[in-house]
Structure formats: C-alpha cells, structure tokens
Amino acid sequence: MTDRDQREMLGAFVRAHRERLRPDTPGGRRRTPGLRREELAVRAGISPTWCAWIEQGREVEASPKTLSRLAHALHLTRAERAYLFELAGRRDPESGALPPVADAPLSLRLVLEQLNVPAYALDPLWNACHWNEAAARLFIGWLDAKREPNLLRFLFLEKAARTLIPDWEDRARRALDEFRADYSKSFADPHAQALVDGLCAESPSFARIWGEQGVREREGGVRSFRHPEDGMLTFRQHTFSPAERPDFKLVVLTPVPPPSGTPRPPS
C-alpha cells in the first residue's frame, strides 16, 4: 500500500464517520448528510481547511493531539480510534488507557473453571484475581486468600518463592522485564508507580533488577518448581489475554512428563 492509498483511506474513514453524526441544530434542507466539514472542525477545534484536506487525501501532518480531538469529535469507539491513528501513522497518546473495572472479565473465571491444570489470572498490576485449585496447590505461599495476591510481591518478598523456584534469579529477572513492558502502558497510573516504588524500597533484589532497565515480551516456555510435597515439577507456560480486556492475562501451566525412567512422586 502506498502513502497515497493510506491517505485516501484515512480521508474516506473520516468522511464516513462525519456523515453519520447528527448536527447540533437539525432542521431545514441539507445537501450533506450528517455534519458539514465546518461543523466537525468547530467540534474538534481545528481548521475547516485541514478537515477538507484530510478527507481529500492530501499530504497533511496531524499531531497526535489534533487526531485525538478529531477522534473525540467523531465519537469514535476504542477500535475506531486505533484505526484512525494507524491510518495517520501516529502513536495514540491514550493507547493502553483502558476504562477501569471493578472485577476481572467474566471470561477469565469461566475458562479457569474448566481447567484441571494450574491456571491463574492477572490484572494489569499483576495481582492474581482468579485461580483454580491446581494453581493454589502449586503456588504455596502466594495463591492464598489470606496473603498478598501480587505476583511481584510474592517473587521478591516471600521466602517461599525462592524455595519453590529453583532458578529464582533468572525467573525473577524475566518476570520483571515482562512487567516493565506492561508498566510502559500505565505510566500515569499512581497505583503502578506505588507498586514499583514500594518494591524498590522493600526489596534490594527488586531495586537492583529494576535498575537494569530490562524489557521483554511475554514468553512461554518450560518452568520448573521445587514443591515441598510433590517434589520437582515441570510445566510449560502459556499466556492468553481476553479480547475485551487485553491488559488482563490468563496463565496456564501444562505438565511436562518426567523423562523416561524417572520415578514419579507419590500422589
């Protein structure tokens, strides 16, 4: 697709959504369906000429702030707004700013109820919001209604984590690097900043690894645990996000069979 094609798609998109809007003072004969360009420009606080040029596919450089005003004036949904910014080749300053919710999406709990392998759900700050019995048995010292549900606080503040996770240093660094990728979408959230500041103050290990500035995407892979009752256990980790709330995560651990000839722990 050429730049011109993309500009023409942007113009057609803006024009179609402008024509869907109702004027502030309906009445009389109107040759243009929906809003006129001048009316949209007033609502968005931008130049009518600029509106015309964008719809005509001309070469115009719109700032993210201007595009944001246009998106609000057009009453775009979250998906429509993302499409607008993608066509304009700009980064949305509000990307990742999802509406707050009191509870995790229902889909996470419904899926968890169907799983018989360890699985848990994390909110944007990595608090465990749902988990199943298999996960509660595996994560001794964390998934307990009487304890702090935050995964990072468990990893860095609970002695049980270093006992449970044999390769603790590598796993803790990986987790923190992955959390930073999520943290980049919530700089404005005071709760996220409070979590990081609190852990930096309480855990020298957290402060040291956080200071390394590592970032990585969420990855699956083999995870081993030294369980106090079941012995060494190995799983393959998989992570999913619900479409309606991609800032939440569902983490599923599928057992990896021990090598042939390895005695199994008693059930």
Topology:
Elements: H1 3-20, H2 37-44, H3 48-55, H4 64-73, H5 78-88, H6 106-113, E1 119-122, E2 128-131, H7 133-138, H8 151-157, H9 159-164, H10 168-183, H11 190-202, H12 204-210, E3 221-227, E4 231-240, E5 249-255
Helix pairs in contact: 2-3, 2-4, 4-5, 11-12
What would CATH call the class of the largest domain? Alpha Beta
Helix content: 40-55%
Strand numbers in spatial order across the main sheet: 2-1-5-4-3
Q: Which secondary-structure class do the elements indicate? A: alpha+beta
SS strand fraction: 5-15%
Task: Give the uncertain stretches in residue-range form.
Answer: none
* Shape call: elongated
Helix count, per DSSP?
12
Gyration radius (Cα, Å) is 25 Å
The strand count comes to 5
Helix and strand element order: HHHHHHEEHHHHHHEEE
Q: Overall pLDDT, averaged? A: 87
* CATH level 3 topology of the largest domain: Beta-Lactamase
